[in-house]
């Protein structure tokens, strides 16, 4: 069996379903892991028993988290339903992975300010948005100019977790820096366009419907990578968003320089955003909406206090 061919089919089908790039990557990894575990036998020649053994192996031998096991099951179900063409029947008898009770890692307000002070440039601005707007790492990296409304103080997060859009605040204290970043990106887009590059990846079928938009500055990434990449299919020199590892490394290094003992990552800033809002008396339903959680029980992990309500919402970055 040719694994590359199977992966191409998985990616093509995932594209038709308009899955996010992260979901496509995750499903591809699990399909490879499943096929390798089954001795490189084509999935059409396997069934529920093989899936049961694979998922049990993940829990028993690799001791993965319950969410990881659930993701692997979703990937295998997608493989059989959309690629093989034979929906997987209900799989029973799977050894469940443990669901550890892990509290989110939260920094104090002073630690957040120390962390941000230990950063500079574009990574610092991005970290400010992680904390000041409650963005996820990929949501921040993939912001476009059109997603930021400085005049109304809003950020529109498009196709977040669960392919849901949401609106969160743009902190007042970073608006001037965001405006400067927008101006810098407009200049960069013009320079690259004049040099024959500056092409952009557009969502869905929009590129075919509006071909001029592939070089329009309104669709430009707010935080573009320093170098363009050559698209294999078209040969276009494309501007891509900054890679998430750039911000991850910057945040980890800043945590060390700031002398923060606990482990610090990009998601720590999002956890701190939610916790500090609740500490300041914001209603949990409001915080749920800002975070983009489907269920309020997910947001409840940040607090054990009663809802105290609130008329307006200010970013914790703006509270002295």
Description:
This protein is mainly α and 320 residues long. It has 13 helices and five strands. The strands form two sheets. The protein has a three-stranded antiparallel sheet. A hairpin with a 4-residue loop joins strand 1 (148-149) and strand 2 (154-157).
Short summary:
This protein is mostly helical.
Structural class: mainly alpha
Helices, by number, come to: 13
Strand order of the largest sheet: 1-2-3
Shape: globular
Main sheet: strands, sense, barrel: 3 strands, antiparallel
Q: Unreliable stretches, pLDDT < 50, 5 or more residues?
A: 304-312
According to DSSP, the number of beta strands is 5
First-residue to last-residue Cα separation: 61 Å
Proportion of helical residues: 40-55%
Summarize this structure as a short list of keywords or feature phrases.
single chain; 320 residues; mainly alpha; 3-stranded antiparallel β-sheet; two-stranded antiparallel ribbon; 13 helices; 48% helix
